[in-house]
User: Fold this.
Amino acid sequence: KAGINLQGDVANVSITGNVIGGIILNTTTTQLYGVLMAGGSPEFVTITGNTFRGNTSTDIRDSTTTKNKNYSGNATSLTLQTDIAVSSGVLQISATGEFFTVATSVASITDLRSPWNGRRVTLVFQAACTVTNGTGVLELAGSTNFSAVNKSTLTLIYTGSLWREISRTNP
Assistant:
């Protein structure tokens, strides 16, 4: 149930300049993923300049072991994604998307997963949550923790070795 489905080993992947999504399958179900990559370990994965829309789970689901990923310049509907899973303070966001809600059950965040160099994400909080500075992967402004409340936002960019704060709002 994907617009583009890549299974197993492939040398390199480049998907550029497509409209992916909004497909109705079996007359009632929309597709889950724009791009699904399962297994394998391509050397390079480039997914840029595409327009994703109407995918019910996430735009790109990548379970490969590729370290050289570029998922930049893709347009989405910019809806908030709420698939965030937290385990021991580690926030697991989907491989694509820029805006994510952080559920009311999350007390603290010490790390984010699914990074690539230049990736930018905005977290929108639904309740109080502490984002911890200086854990080795999070560098927040002023070298201090961020105490979010309902409707707070925190925007971060991945620099290749850590997530660096760009901006924050606290209503």
Summary: Residues 10 and 141 are 41 Å apart (CA to CA). The chain is about 0% helix and 50% strand. The mean pLDDT is 80.
